[in-house]
Amino acid sequence: MNRLSSLFAALFLSLLMATTAFAADKVNINTADAATLAASLTGVGPAKAEAIVAYRTENGPFRSADQLAEVRGIGLATVEKNRDKIIVSAAPAAPAPAR
């Protein structure tokens, strides 16, 4: 019985590590800073990453990965290269002001 428990524990840990590694390759374009965008997206360096953050600041959160193509310097080819890495979810709400 102890051997079976050890086997299940090893299997669980393996799956947990694989899931964590997979999630690490993804980047939320609505919350990531410029350094994270530049490090995570193929064909996006510091200048383009700053342009993404500036666009997001001026226009609000992205609604889709395709909307990245509206950022100066980012084309549909860059979006396609990175589509599997991009997560688009709502930006966190701003905290309520202290009373």
UniProtKB/TrEMBL annotation:
Gene Ontology BP annotations: DNA repair; protein secretion by the type II secretion system
The keyword Cytoplasm belongs to this UniProt entry's keyword annotation = yes
Keywords in alphabetical order:
Cytoplasm, Signal
Please name the InterPro entries in this protein's record: Competence_ComEA_HhH (IPR004509), Endo/Exo/Phosphatase_dom_1 (IPR051675), Hlx-hairpin-Hlx_DNA-bd_motif (IPR003583), RuvA_2-like (IPR010994)
Gene3D superfamilies registered for this protein in UniProt: Photosystem II 12 kDa extrinsic protein
Q: Which domain of life is it from?
A: Bacteria
Residues of the signal peptide: 1-23
* Domain Helix-hairpin-helix DNA-binding motif class: residue ranges: 36-55, 66-85
Q: Which GO terms describe its molecular function?
A: DNA binding
Keyword S-adenosyl-L-methionine set for record? no
Query: What Gene Ontology cellular component terms go with this record?
Result: type II protein secretion system complex
Record protein name field: Competence protein ComEA
